[in-house]
Design a protein that fits this description.
313 residues, alpha/beta, 4-stranded mixed beta sheet, 7 helices
Length: 313
């Protein structure tokens, strides 16, 4: 990946793209897992400079907060600091069975409520052009099982997933997946149904993206909350949570990223920073994470370091 701003043309993702002054001024930043139910993280949002990024755009790759009121307050604050904010829901954003919220709302209804809230706030949840220089496309996702039950890696124990909070705090009954009281295997199978529904809903977004690309030959940046490829998860011997693979990877998502001809894909969920190029696509995770996670360095949480476009030379 390279950008060479030499006059009015740049080489981006292997092709010539018209560039003007905005390529020097308009930047795209990305962050995931800001978890603003934690006061320290909400303070991070409030501390983002109020005027420095007014010509820039921001991707928020899910897990803003457990409570919808905090999601709204956080996104609203960010819209005052950036010219454009893009958002896709994470698993925490779709928890409906919490102590101070009604348990009658399904997680799919919550997703639709978040879309309506974003429309009201001016937050982008579909593909859009930024500064007439690049396209950003949010992609929905969930996770499904990637390990084989008869070929479990060393250290993997299904019973460790019994307490996985999504199984208890999400309600997917309206898409034929209701995991309460069922085995871990059944819960993982039903999570796969949710992922299928999310990928199906992406088809409309990809169609809109295709129409935008037909009118403008611009670089595409996609993003999701969940991990699009299993090889973006660290080796299991490096993981404390050995079962992470089965509640993190969205099978089928990478095919949609390739369909979109994305140059860069941003994701979140695992709270493990990542910056890798695989088969021509740069995969980036820049999590704020929970307070006190030692593997996320303090300097990695500085918003000024979270720029992903233009890419580095």
């Amino acid at each position: 990946l390279s950008v060479i701003c030499g006059g009015s043309v740049a080489t981006v993702c292997g092709r010539q793209v018209a560039m003007a002054l905005p390529c020097l001024t308009t930047k795209l930043f990305a962050v995931s897992d800001i978890h603003t139910d934690h006061g320290t993280n909400r303070s991070w949002v409030d501390a983002v400079h109020s005027t420095r990024f007014q010509s820039d755009a921001l991707i928020v790759a899910g897990d803003v907060a457990n409570h919808i009121g905090n999601v709204e307050a956080s996104l609203k604050a960010l819209t005052t600091k950036f010219a454009k904010v893009f958002y896709v829901a994470g698993n925490h954003d779709l928890w409906t069975r919490t102590s101070d919220e009604s348990s009658t709302e399904t997680s799919m209804a919550r997703l639709e409520a978040l879309d309506k809230m974003c429309l009201r706030l001016g937050v982008e949840t579909g593909p859009a052009v930024v500064a007439d220089r690049f396209l950003v496309c949010p992609l929905l996702s969930w996770y499904d099982r990637t390990t084989q039950p008869n070929q479990l890696p060393d250290g993997y124990k299904e019973e460790h997933l019994q307490g996985w909070m999504d199984f208890w705090k999400c309600d997917w009954s309206d898409v034929g997946a209701s995991s309460g009281g069922k085995s871990v295997v059944a819960k993982l199978q039903e999570a796969g149904k949710v992922n299928e529904e999310m990928l199906f809903r992406n088809e409309n977004r990809l169609a809109k993206l295709s129409a935008l690309r037909a009118a403008r030959d611009l670089p595409v940046i996609t993003f999701s909350h969940f991990v699009p490829r299993a090889d973006l998860i660290p080796a299991i011997e490096r993981l404390k949570f050995k079962e992470l693979m089965d509640v993190a990877v969205s099978e089928g998502l990478d095919a949609q990223i390739r369909e979109a001809e994305s140059c860069v894909h941003v994701f979140g969920h695992t709270h493990i920073p990542c910056n890798r190029v695989i088969e021509g696509v740069r995969y980036v995770q820049q999590p704020l994470g929970y307070p006190g996670e030692p593997w996320i360095r303090k300097d990695q949480k500085e918003i000024a370091r979270m720029v992903i476009w233009p890419p580095p030379p």
